[in-house]
Fold:
Amino acid sequence: MKHRAAGWQLFVFLAPAVLVYGAFSAWPLIDTLRLGLYTADETGRTSFAGLANFRALLSDPQLSGPFWNALGNNLRFFAIHMLVQNPVALALAALLALPRVRGAALYRTVFFLPTLLSVVIIGFSWQLILSPLWGVAESALALVGLKDSFQPWLGLEESALTTLALISVWQFVGIPLMLIYAALIAIPEEIIEAATVEGAGPWRIFFELKLPLILPTLGLVTILTFIGNFNAFDLIYAVKGGMAGPNYSTDILGTLFYRTFFGYYVQPGNPPLGAALATLMFLVILAGVGVYLFAVQRRLRRFAL
Structure:
């Protein structure tokens, strides 16, 4: 009777969460996968097309070009976050975790505050700062003798995506910072004291003791960065609109999906094709998570042990 009661209690407590997840996550995902297998005519009538939408996105000259361009930009967007955001977050967390750092709580708050701001505010503010007409970036560079290095970075094809990625890094560096900081302060003080007694210096303690112990957290930060970057949309849209200019140089999978599914200006919307694109985005993210779980995470656990 006790086991039966426990089973019913488990069902009662899990049912609300399962229903909410099923209604707002699982079912939309399944319906998107289904819609990607159909095609629509000019009247909006759908018919089963199998994998035709996926073949078109991957090989059709008119559709595959934008898709591969967006995927390449997304990989570049992710690479900049991995090479800039996470190392900076690691360095800042290591500094703030040092004993007797004055104002550590204030610094943590300052670094985390941008993550609480609206992306629209962030995008508009940085457009004003970097504007060649009324922005303050050119004047700030002139103060340090670098006025000649200023360019309209958001308006150049070769620099627009990098600039937006660095803006995103500035906004979200507080999240990996707090995760890594929490992992660092969770390391038992006895281990660090024992290493100090053995004659290890601060650099050796960090690289040979602390860093191996927080590798699982660094792996978690990496996969969260990957998922977040391949779901990115709002910053690009807020700064560059749905066309992701100049000349689609800032186009990523999120903005391409928006134009494909809903349409934008002269481009008509195509929900089945957009659903197929969303399915490919899901598969890319699933592949990245799978590589992390079955390859990287296992090695990190063995190394930590």
